[in-house]
Specification:
Strand order of the largest sheet: 1-2
Distance between the termini: 59 Å
Mean pLDDT: 87
Shape: globular
Structural class: mainly alpha
Helix content: over 70%
Number of strands: 2
Radius of gyration: 25 Å
Length: 292
């Protein structure tokens, strides 16, 4: 009896390992091996063509003296400061509106989510045309109202805010869905009790909706931060990091070091250091948002 049970357990274990084998193979090939190889590259100089050469900690020394990389991090932080508040405010307000009993509610939810599933390159090219100084729709609207044209992506002071606006438009649909899920999990009796106490719509929003969405807010902030730190397609396609490196994001800088200049070891060092920065920032944000 005991032996038959043991045989069944061993058989089920084999089936379980067999079922998980495709994931284990893909994890080893596409995650574990690249991470391990990147860690080895940190201590080497390699341009893909010639053999790797051991350089020890020289890549770290170069990193901490790289002014251009610091500029790229600064640009990325500027993007986050603009993008995250816009993302949260618009996503929450639209989610509250779409949570009401309105006509064509399902249609509007689908429309707001549509940009999320469209290719980022396509969205960037579309907005590049909208931002065109001479023929862009936005500037044509301004000139028709008697207002001056705005150099959306041609002026260093306007370029990164313009990219932040575009990124918000593209990604807001995802966070609308997250906020909608959170709103639908708030008990209706809380709002009914507040109405009986004479609470206004603003008071219900401030003292019931916002506190009840705390966990959702933490998730949105973290996802927005990680997505913002991953800024690459927009500046790569739209501006190439210009004008005057004003839209050079950290990810774009790492990409240039690896595939434009052929500094694979230094790019790997930048990547690990940048991942550490993201980890620290996300931890700080999580603690601040949860405490509030």
């Amino acid at each position: 009896m005991i032996n038959s049970v043991i045989r069944r357990i061993k058989k089920s274990d084999k089936i379980g390992y067999l079922m998980s084998l495709p994931y284990l193979v893909s994890f080893a090939l596409f995650i574990a091996f690249p991470l391990g190889f990147s860690f080895i590259l940190i201590f080497h100089k390699w341009n893909i063509i010639t053999p790797m050469r051991w350089v020890g900690l020289k890549n770290f020394y170069r990193l901490f003296h790289d002014v251009e990389f610091l500029r790229a991090i600064y640009n990325t932080l500027i993007f986050l400061v603009i993008h995250i508040p816009l993302q949260i405010v618009f996503a929450l307000l639209i989610a509250v509106l779409l949570n009401q009993k309105i006509k064509l509610r399902g249609f509007f939810r689908a429309v707001y989510f549509m940009p999320v599933i469209v290719s980022g390159v396509v969205i960037t090219i579309l907005w590049q045309q909208l931002y065109s100084y001479e023929t862009g729709l936005l500037n044509l609207m301004l000139t028709s109202l008697g207002l001056p044209r705005i150099p959306w992506i041609n002026d260093p002071s306007w370029a990164m805010p313009s990219i932040a606006i575009m990124a918000t438009w593209k990604n807001v649909g995802l966070y609308i869905v997250l906020f909608l899920v959170g709103l639908q999990n708030i008990p209706a009796y809380l709002y009914e009790s507040a109405e009986l106490d004479g609470a206004s719509a603003w008071q219900k929003f401030r003292y019931i909706t916002v506190p009840a969405l705390n966990s959702t807010m933490v998730l949105v902030v973290i996802l927005s931060t990680i997505g913002g730190f991953s800024l690459f397609i927009e500046p790569f396609v739209m501006t190439g990091g210009g004008p005057m490196n004003s839209t050079l994001s950290a990810m774009l800088y790492i990409y240039n070091q690896a595939f434009y200049f052929g500094h694979m070891g230094y790019a790997a060092t930048l990547g690990f250091f940048f991942a550490f920065i993201i980890f620290v920032v996300v931890l700080i944000q999580k603690r601040i948002v949860e405490n509030k």
